Amino acid sequence: DAKTTQPTSMDCAEGRAANLPCNHSTISGNEYVYWYRQIHSQGPQYIIHGLKNNETNEMASLIITEDRKSSTLILPHATLRDTAVYYCIVAEKGGYQKVTFGTGTKLQVIP
Amino acid sequence: GAGVSQSPRYKVTKRGQDVALRCDPISGHVSLYWYRQALGQGPEFLTYFNYEAQQDKSGLPNDRFSAERPEGSISTLTIQRTEQRDSAMYRCASSLGEVGAEAFFGQGTRLTVV
């Protein structure tokens, strides 16, 4: 069973910020939150990860609540190419074994 | 190569035949993972290796599935006596291991058992 819960789908207007939530209430102290996305039939692509502090890179920002039970992935200016399925997973650093990706959130960026 | 390479990209086989799926990870990546992905679902873990050692095979559905990575680089996932329910996208990923953070996925092999 997936250790995360995500909405099935979301829409976002092109150019606006896309905020994708994820609940991971059973996360343990040594587990990180990772975000991946999968565009059409391509392989999943790493976006960002974090432990407890907020993180930002060239693709996105990750906001993790203080109790670490939920997080939000933020795409600051969504483009049509950001239309994809976004997966939130929890795992020990580098420990992708037994990771269940779940069904993710289908983000549709609308022109 | 620059990324994880899987071959073949597409494989159609008759029920009962054996198939071998190949994964060539990123050079220097210690860990290699095999996943299976059904349509509309996220990847499902099958097995993983650190170097040549198979660390965990608990995700393999049954004993018709096996994997090896004899020299700690290229890996082969073998499915014996294929069944229609084996039809799926099979994905390989590699990472630097515990010191690394991200896994890089290949394009996958689409297996169709007819």
Proportion of β residues of chain A? over 45%
End-to-end distance of chain A? 35 Å
- Specify Rg of chain B, calculated over alpha carbons: 13 Å
Order of helices and strands of chain A: EEEEEEEEE
Low-confidence stretches of chain A: none
Large-scale geometry of chain B: globular
Helices and strands of chain B, in N-to-C order? EEEEEEEEEEE
Q: What percentage of the residues of chain B does DSSP assign to strands (E)?
A: over 45%
Query: How confident overall, as mean pLDDT of chain A?
Result: 92
The average pLDDT score of chain B comes to 94
SS class of chain A: mainly beta
Overview of the molecule:
The complex is a heterodimer of chains A (111) and B (114). Chain A has no helices and 9 strands. Chain A is globular and about 40 Å long. Chain A is mainly beta and 111 residues long. In chain B, strand 9 and strand 10 form a beta hairpin. Chain B is globular. The model of chain B has no long low-confidence stretch (mean pLDDT 94). The chains are: A mainly beta (111), B mainly beta (114). At the A-B interface, strand 3, strand 4 and strand 8 of A face strand 5, strand 9 and strand 10 of B.
Set out the fold topology.
The complex is a heterodimer of chains A (111) and B (114).
Chain A: E1 9-13, E2 18-23, E3 31-38, E4 45-50, E5 55-56, E6 61-64, E7 70-75, E8 84-92, E9 105-110
Parallel strand pairs in A: 1-9
Antiparallel strand pairs in A: 2-7, 3-4, 3-8, 5-6, 6-7, 8-9
Chain B: E1 5-7, E2 10-13, E3 19-24, E4 31-37, E5 44-50, E6 53-56, E7 65-68, E8 75-79, E9 88-95, E10 104-105, E11 109-113
